[in-house]
TrEMBL record, chain A:
Tagged with keyword Nucleotide-binding: yes
Keywords: ATP-binding, Nucleotide-binding, Nucleotidyltransferase, Transferase
Name of the protein this chain belongs to: Sulfate adenylyltransferase subunit 2
Molecular function GO terms recorded: ATP binding; sulfate adenylyltransferase (ATP) activity
This enzyme's EC code(s): 2.7.7.4
Gene3D superfamilies on file: HUPs
TrEMBL record, chain B:
Keywords noted in UniProt: ATP-binding, GTP-binding, Nucleotide-binding, Nucleotidyltransferase, Transferase
Entry's family note: Belongs to the TRAFAC class translation factor GTPase superfamily. Classic translation factor GTPase family. CysN/NodQ subfamily.
Keyword Nucleotidyltransferase carried by entry: yes
Single biological process term from Gene Ontology: sulfate assimilation
Protein name as it appears in the record: Sulfate adenylyltransferase subunit 1
Binding-site positions, GTP: 28-35, 107-111, 162-165
Amino acid sequence: MFKNNTTYLRQLESESIYIMREVMADFRNPVMLYSIGKDSSVMLHLAKKSFYPGRVPFPLLHIDTGWKFKEMYMFRDYIANTSKIELIVHLNEKGKLLDLNPFQHGGSKYTDIMKTEGLKEAINKYHFDAAFGGARRDEEQSRSKERIYSFRDSYHQWDPKKQRPELWWNYNGKINKGENIRVFPLSNWTELDIWQYIFLEKIEIVPLYFAAVRPVLERDGLLIMVDDKRINIRSNEVIKNKMIRFRTLGCWPLTSAIESEATNLEDIIKETVTVKTSERTGRAIDYDQKSSMELKKRQGYF
Amino acid sequence: MNINIKDNFQKWFDINQKKTLLKFLTCGSVDDGKSTLIGRLLHDTKQIYNDQLSSLYIDSKRHGTQGDKIDLALIVDGLQSEREQGITIDVAYRYFSTYKRKFIIADTPGHKQYTRNMVTGASTCDLSILLVDATKGLSEQTYRHSFISTLLGIKYLIVAVNKMDLVDYKEEIFIKIKKNFLLFSKKLPDNINIIFIPISALIGENIVFKKKLMPWYDGYTLLNILETIKIQDHVNSKEIRFPIQYVNRPDSNFRGYSGMLVSGEIKIGQPIKILPSNINSHVSRIVTFDGDLKKATVGQAITIVLKNEIDINRGDFLVNINSSLKPSQEAILDVVWMTNNKLLIGQSYDVKLSCKKVRVYIKEILFKIDINTLIKKQSTSLSLNSIGQIKVVFNEAVFFDSYIDNRMTGSMIFIDILTNITVGAGMVKNNLKEKQIISSTNKNNFESDLHDLISKYFPHWKLSKLCV
């Protein structure tokens, strides 16, 4: 990280801007993976800063699964319309034809086909050579081992033992045709940094991050918000209205909410400082098996 | 400093924004307890969430080395193969903060075969914690890692003598290790700061808390040291170094040069020299998304607009008008080799330095360093994890500083032409054979204007740059 006479958040900001510009200069056809969450919102904001007064010079790619929260779809389309950035939405057609869903086929298979395979398909289809992702190293153990420029072979695989040494501010973007680099400009940000930056920069985020009364049911110790009729309600389950919000957002049946009274950013920051559990507790897919994220990344997940 | 966020949010927020950042790495030999130390630091500063702690208990039973007790080392070894083998393979980055400071830890591997990952970690850090096992004393890796740390420009070393619990917390053992290290450190650069601390990462002594198990030690805890140590910035701050990273040209009305100000200060109206074209100009705007700035300081990612339209490319430099930075085609580099394919005289590589890619040819291997003795030896090649000094020739004249003056503009990575892998790290020791530049006073304004016009309207003439 660069020495910077301004604050820590500004140092992180400068570093991320530097990375984005470097990618734009290094690669022929970059794309930004846009998952509609808070990290994506921050990443997009940083992209605007990086190329100002020019427009963001690459499209956004949303790997859709068909199972995002309604509010997320609305927010995505609102952002695409207001920021005038090209939005590519890709949905794994094969998965859609199979009517793949997280209830019947399990979170793991569903994620593999709809997200990992979907992402690989889209990158191949549009010949993207670099893809920005909003992953942070503080999120998960295998993420902490990730480089900022993360090399993927032509099968999109990540091999932790073959990572390129990454020195100083000097990123190696050399790849052969068919290979790609996943770039993580938010690597050095923590969850708390993200919230403070959203607060400081007044960045718009999906309203689901703010607490409100919403319909939920408790399943396997997780609070699942019922977003539409596709819920496979079990006989012993009851849908209740609870004051909840989300720390992390993914597909609705696989992302759990937390009970919270935090209706504004100030309260969210307070909650983040004092909370006793990690952000990823809300992600069911992390618990499918041991080292779940590492396996997913090896297979091509972002 | 200790403001409760619930009582006064704004004050907490303001203080939190102003915290300084310290990046450090932990190094030392395998089993010296690096992972345990980091686990201990995170645990005792309450940075581990409950769910992480409970999975840590489960993992400890399966992969742990502490019997029924929790194995804090497992918190940092995140890869499956690392847990299975109980070693750290790759550098990982950890984040924690206290009321006083924010920290980024580069957790680097101790195994010799992963030295390159240790170099990776060290390249962005200001401080090294060198772990020494009190039962074993200094090891080859202690020498290797202190040498690499200082080679990479780290000026602050904390020698943490760990596992004091296994030697009955005896002061003599600590003193003996301290003496030996001081003796060895005479071979290291003389402007480094060394601090010694006896610890037990396993018990948690002198890390965050002091239980007075070593009453003879009257120094600070490790965390105290990390929170309060003042890191002097050694970058020469007067010289402007602004490598052009990206030319921002959204339409014909705007032409800006984006990049990170690596050193110096840039103000509006500032006279500036462009290298390699050696043309002078003025800064007319410093553009950011949040509005134009009057001045920019080190580390700011900005976009500069110049008074006149000049052909400037990625990898060019903006410097002070009276800067003595000259293009060179040869250099002497300290190099750390990071791949199985040996570095040999006569080979060519791509290098990336300050946003520029050029090809380089290895002219000479001046010496290879024996890590145990730090003695320079003659060699015709450098193998994986070797450190040596080489003489290189670039296929075009490039700009750089010496690494001790500027870690950013004095460093480069070597990329294998065939495999595209980063194979080495180079740090400039000296430049050789400066290319002669015709003084800019020899060319009048008309010449330079004409040159600019031709370049702009007849780019297919491929006019070579003036004065290079």
